[in-house]
Amino acid sequence: MGVAVPRISAVFPRISAVFPRISAVIPPLRAVVRRIRSVGLIGLVAACAALPEGQEAPRVGLLLDVAESISARSSLELVDPASGASLGGGSFESAIEGRAGLGLVMEVPVGGAWSLRSGVLAKRFRPQDIPGLAFEEAEQLEGLLAARVRGRSREGPQPWAEMRLGWVPETRSRSTFDPGGALATELDLRGDAYAKAGVAAGLEWPLQNRWRLEVGSGYDIPLGSADAETQLALAGLPPVVTRTTIEPRGWTFWIGLTWSP
After folding, report:
1. What is the per-residue pLDDT for 7?
2. 100: β partners
3. Which of 142, 159, 141 is nearest to 150 (CA)?
4. DSSP state at residue 61
5. pTM here?
6. CATH code assigned to 8-259
7. Distance between the two ends of the chain, CA-based, in angstroms?
8. Neighbour-count burial for 162-200, b at 16+ CB within 10 Å, e otherwise
9. pLDDT of residue 46
10. Cα angle for residues 16, 17, 23 (degrees, 5° grid)
11. Cβ–Cβ under 8 Å, residues 82 and 239
12. Fewer Cβ neighbours under 10 Å: the N or C end of the chain?
């Protein structure tokens, strides 16, 4: 007996009811999606053209972050630009508040239950303030490469697990340096590139017309830190250099829709 498959038109209202933030998340990231959408479509066409006869076609899809639980090891140091000597600072454990996340992915089967997935994720977040430094909302693009394996399922959802690597070329955030008194000043922080690694797992439901709905969660750890160095000029004082590092780690939860031609 065949398994009843829900119509995709019936699935969308349920998603919107459970995650009302979808309509608020997509507009701020629409410009980013337009930039990366053409790259994904070109890659899909090229991959389909190179497929051996009978092999499953690649899939493309959108992922939406619905929740995050991220912590970060952060540090702030003041340095004399002339001598390079440290003028003080410290390390702190802080949290990162996820605001929004949207990704475009492409998945290519490589044999059996395995496939390779690559994509670009656009994220908005706000680091928790640390003593002397108050952060504003930050944004970043992130590259993703993952190896996914699917379990067998005769009925209902299909389980999957994956190992993944990420690459963050730059993290930008505006912040306010405030050591006290009337010395507060704004900083434009640009963290350098860093890599991260993680694992993820979830479930996948087949829908009509070659669509699939997935839910997943992943835990990532940094393989480096986002380091930013900015010259700071305070009124009445000689210039100093601020060195800031952030090493984020933690959980991300998402839903996604993928489609194959």
Report:
1. 45
2. 124
3. 159
4. E
5. 0.70
6. 2.40.160.20
7. 27
8. bebebebeebebebebbeeeeeeeebebebeebebebeb
9. 52
10. 35
11. no
12. N
